[in-house]
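Work Package 3 (structural annotation) set out to generate three-dimensional models for the target panel prioritized at the project kickoff. During this period the team completed the workflow that converts sequence records into discrete structure tokens, so that structures can be stored uniformly alongside our sequence database. As a representative example, we reproduce one entry of 117 residues exactly as it appears in the project archive.
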Amino acid sequence: MVKIKRIYDEQEMDDGIRVLVERLWPRGVSKEAANLEAWLRDIAPSDSLRKWYGHEPAKWDEFQKAYLLELQTPERVAALKKLKDWANAGNLTLLYAAKDTLRNSAVVLQRYLNTQL
């Protein structure tokens, strides 16, 4: 099973493998404090999609569809395989920085991965 949580939240024992799935490094978090297995910036939405969305709730449905299409691109397939392998091996936690815990790319990615496992 794939879980998600904000990178600013406390690390927990059951997080398992922790992977940052943001294109940009989150403000105020040192790489040591993040305690990550990996930072897969290539799995994050493209810069143009991220900027277009701008965390505007009215664009959420359209953002999800566009991001799911981006996940099918060749440059993201290898990252998806890596995430699936980690999830099949044990707990996997996708870390994100967005303040909106209900409408962010990690939510879309989590839902996608959990349907693929």
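The chain has one domain: 2-116.
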